[in-house]
Amino acid sequence: MLRTVLPLATMLALGACALPPPETASLPADAVIGAGDPLRSAVANTSFAFSSQSLLAGRPAQAARAVAQMEWLAVEMPTNPRLTSVSPSIIGQMTAARAEWRAALGIAPDTEAQPVINSLYAAARALGTGEANAVAASALDSAVFPRGGQATLTRLAALPSLPLTNSAAVTASEAIRERDATASRRL
User: Fold this and answer.
1) In this structure, is residue 154 part of a structural domain?
2) How far apart are CA 94 and CA 78, in angstroms?
3) pLDDT string in tens for the chain (187-residue length)
4) Rounded distance, CA 78 to CA 90, Å?
5) Could you tell me if residue 8 is inside a domain?
C-alpha cells in the first residue's frame, strides 16, 4: 500500500507546486485617507471616476489614482475572502478592463500590478504637491511606462473612452452592494 500512496502523494504535491501563486498587490497608505476599507474606497472612487470621461479630463493626478485603484482591484477582487460570493463574471470583466487601461497607457500586459500602482501614486503625489510635470513624469517608471513619463502624463490628462473599465468599476460597486445586502439579511 505504501508503494501506491507515495507516488500519488508526490504527484499531488508536484501538481500543487505547478500553479503559480495568485498575484498580490497593495495600495499605499495615502490611498485610503479618511476611509478605513481600501476595497470600498477603491470601488467607490473608480465607479465615480470612470462614470464619465469628462471627470478625469485635464486631471492627470486623479486619473493616475483611479487607474492605480483599478489595477489593485483587478488583483484584489479574485482573491479577497470577503468576495467569495461575488459573481465570477466580475473577474472576466476586470481582466478585460485591465487590458483596456493598460493598452491606453502603454503598459505591457505581463507587468506586475505593484510597480504600476507605485508609479501612478508617486506621479499623483508629485502633481498633487504642485511639483513640476518633469518631477511627476520622472516618478513614472520607464520599465512600466515605456512611452516615457511625459507622454504618460499627457495620456492621463486625456484618457480615451474606457467603456470596459467603466463597466468593471460599476459591476464592482454593484457586487459590493449585493454582498452588503446579503450580509445584512443574515443578521
Assistant:
1) yes
2) 9
3) 545 545 555 555 555 556 678 888 989 988 877 657 889 999 999 999 999 999 999 999 999 999 999 999 999 988 888 777 777 788 899 999 999 999 999 999 999 999 999 999 999 999 988 777 899 999 999 999 999 999 999 999 999 999 999 999 999 999 888 877 876 666 5
4) 8
5) no
Q: Where are the beta strands (DSSP E) in 76-127?
A: none
Give burial (CB, 10 Å; 0-12/13-18/19+) of 100. buried
Please count the structural domains in the chain.
Answer: 1
The three cell numbers of residue 183 are: 450580509
* Confidence (pLDDT) at 75: 94
Give the span between the Cα atoms of 80 and 72, in whole angstroms.
11
Q: Say how far apart CA 185 and CA 187 lie, in whole Å.
A: 5
* Separation CA 140–CA 137 (nearest Å): 6
Which triple of cell numbers denotes residue 182?
446579503
**For residues 140 and 136, what is the distance between their CA atoms, to the nearest angstrom?**
7
What amino acid occupies position 145?
F
Domain containing residue 95:
34-186
Strand, coil or helix: 38: helix
CB hemisphere CA count around 77 (13 angstroms): 29
Q: Is residue 17 part of a domain?
A: no
